Each structure stands twice: as structure tokens, then as C-alpha cells.
Amino acid sequence: LATGPRQNNGIFYEIRTYDIKPAKMKEFLELANKHFHFRTAHSELVGFWYADLGALNKVLHIWKYDNFAHRTAVRHALASDKDWQGKFISVVLPMMEKQHNEVAYLVPWCQLGKPPKEGGVYEWVTFQMKPGGPALWGEAFRAAINAHINTGYTRLIGVFHTEYGLLNTVHVLWWNESPDHRAAGRHSAHEDARVVAAVRDSVRFLESQQNVLLIPMQCSPLK
Q1: What is the mean pLDDT of residues 131-139?
Q2: Coiled-coil segments, which residues (predicted)?
């Protein structure tokens, strides 16, 4: 009951967030765009973004793995990759203030999506739910997400439920054409009786939530 249902295969996603020293943020982004192909040669990058609103000097990237043995093999290969270690890792480590990672699964009712076009913005919303897992709050949470999808103003990319990290955490990744398009859509959603009812039911299980507006990097598959 602590983790609840998930997809039947072993695929999981590692979510990594780095806090970068303010004076080094521009340099970090330039190096990442220039050298990140050394990293993506080893495993699949879902997306790479930097925070624009809701956090500053922070980057977030998501990696897909077939299983934990796959991740272990990739980490070993990276440790031996001279280009990755010499041209990127050794240079950017002094630029970082903090690193954090989580392992998460896609919820079983969600497949990883893609935006309809390039050039939009992403919203990363983190929900800290009450202990008990999806057995307690899963259906109400799903209904709240679907209510927002049904308004049509936003595109769902993925819903991730943590397995390692702070438990009972759900990350939802949305795509919007622009921050203003999102703002207008949210305004309309708040006046939609279906959304209001679904959210009212879901927040009974909510401890806290936080959202960050993300801008995709040039090296990000999701743009």
C-alpha cells in the first residue's frame, strides 16, 4: 500500500535537480548544451530544463532506465568515460551548490507524452500527499488531474510517483504554449465546476504543493 500500483515492467525514471551557483549559471548552461551528448550516449534523456519562475539557478533533468541493473551499468560506464568526466563533470562540479535525485515510476494511468510543438514552457508541480500511497489518495488525485486535462488549456506530459526520495510525492509535468496561455487557462479552470469539485476532493489528502516554470535546454529532447 505504500507504493501502490504502477506499470508492470521495470522501467523507472531518475529525476535529478542541481542547484547552481548564481554566478556560474550561464556558464553551466553553455557547457551542458555543448557537452551533454557525451552523457546521452549512455542512456535516454527524457528532458533537461532550467527553472525560470518558482526557483532560481536550478536545473532539472529526467532519465529513463529499463531497471536498476541498467542504471548501475550506465553509472559504471560514465565513470570510465574520459570525455564525460574530463570535459563536463570535472568542470561543472565546482559550479554546483547542491545535488538531489529521486527515483519515480509513471503512474499506471499515464503514459509519457510529448508537446504538440516546440517552443512552449513546462510546469513542474510537486504534490506532497498524506502517507498511505495511491491506495488512499490515488483515485481522487487522478480525478483532479483529469479535470484539468479536460479543460483543454494544458497538455499533460507525465505523472511521476516517487519510489526513492521523499515518499508520497507526486510530480506532474505539464506543457503550455506560454506563461500567459497558462495563466488564462488556470483562470478559466478555477471557474469550472468540474475542476473545483475534483480539486476539493483531492486536497483532503494534500500536505503541500509547489510549482516551477521550466524552460527547456537546447540539448533537451522535450522542447
Answers
A1: 90
A2: none
